[in-house]
TrEMBL record:
This is Sigma-54-dependent transcriptional regulator. Residues 154-383 form the Sigma-54 factor interaction domain. Keywords: ATP-binding, DNA-binding, Nucleotide-binding, Phosphoprotein, Transcription, Transcription regulation. It comes from Pedobacter lithocola. CDD domains: AAA. PANTHER family: ALGINATE BIOSYNTHESIS TRANSCRIPTIONAL REGULATORY PROTEIN ALGB, TRANSCRIPTIONAL REGULATORY PROTEIN. Transmembrane segments: none annotated. The keyword NADP does not apply. Residues 5-124 form the Response regulatory domain.
Amino acid sequence: MLDATVLIIDDDDDILLSARLFLKQQVKQVITCKSPKEINVLLSKNEVDIILLDMNYQKGASDGREGIYWLEHILSIDKDYVVILMTAFGNVELAVKAIKKGATDFILKPWENEKLFATISAASKLRESNRKVKKLEKIHSSLQKDMIRGFENIVGKAEGIKQLQNTLLKVAPTDANVLILGENGTGKQVFAYEIHGNSQRKNQVFMHVDLGSLNENLFESELFGYAKGAFTDAKEDKPGRFELADGGTIFLDEIGNLTLPLQAKLLSVLQNRTVTRLGESRERKVNVRLITATNMPLNEMVTKNTFRQDLLFRINTVELLLPPLRKRGTDILLLANHFMLVFSSKYHKENRSLSAKAEDMLLNYKWPGNVRELQHVLERAVIMSDGNEITEEDLQLSPQRFAQNAAMPDEMALGDMEKMMVQKAIGKHKGKLSKAAAELGLTRAALYRRIEKFGI
């Protein structure tokens, strides 16, 4: 028995009785009515999957105009309704018109039960398929909105970050290719999301492809797709990531990891704006916005002939170089407070605050893992902390890690930078400490501690 509810609309009592007697053995529920004027009420009260709709209701009518009218009315309520039109007057032109108007199928009366069941069965599968597609579209839309909402503001007020934000706002509305450079954990993916979220394609797909984790043998099939029978396990046609991202943005992360042969294949796709699935000769046009990222020195790689210069020219119309966290001064505390709010909410804990010693520890640590490491440290600290204040012990930054970073810029240099930023913020806001603290991402108490510390 099909898990479907069928609504039958016909002015002939015999047709309704015949259809009900047969279909009640084949489907979950059968609803019948004699007048299409009841459609609105019936659809509002029942979750209908398939509608069998007669095409003529007035005596002597045979042109099907009433059926076409009510078909359009039903689809105006929900374009995904599956409607099968019925008529006792076989007419090819009428059938073609009905299909063009959105009918799923067309059946002649009187019908053979086997034919009716086959039609209903096919319609049920189509309805289920439409539901799945609609659900996936909603999930995708929700994920896209969540992603954009989560990264709609890049956290940071360091001068380098402000310059990047200004560049981003200029380039995002265009379709220019963007190359994002920076150490691991500096937020390259966050910037890619931000570009997409401020572009003309923001309501379309954002496709993230981690080339670093993609097996070389799967590169073509994953990015460009394959045809059924292209290789042993290719049991059906499958579009690649470029096709799936059509109309949206594709973000190729870790592009520096590609071998020269794979770089050549990627370059061909970018130049021609077409992909050819494995096992096919047909070229398919794709319209995507390209964003790439890497932590590798591509210009040096070009000199060493390990990265194609023509590919580098193709991908870096605009280049963004993200600074490491150790060079972002009090952005460290701004980000730390941001992550504390996020994780306090996630783990249902009261908002945490950092102790003075914890703040100093965060500022003096060199963050080899950059923002990603800071995020993980704060998540763990929120989980493990017992009180409302996060202490240096909660951060669990081992002394060995500090010692290993001794060769990096010393604490005095970082302290001088912090002092300068505090003085600049106070001067900018003409001594108004609340505004200065807000700009620095500090509480008033934390700002007072720094004023005392630096003798400002």
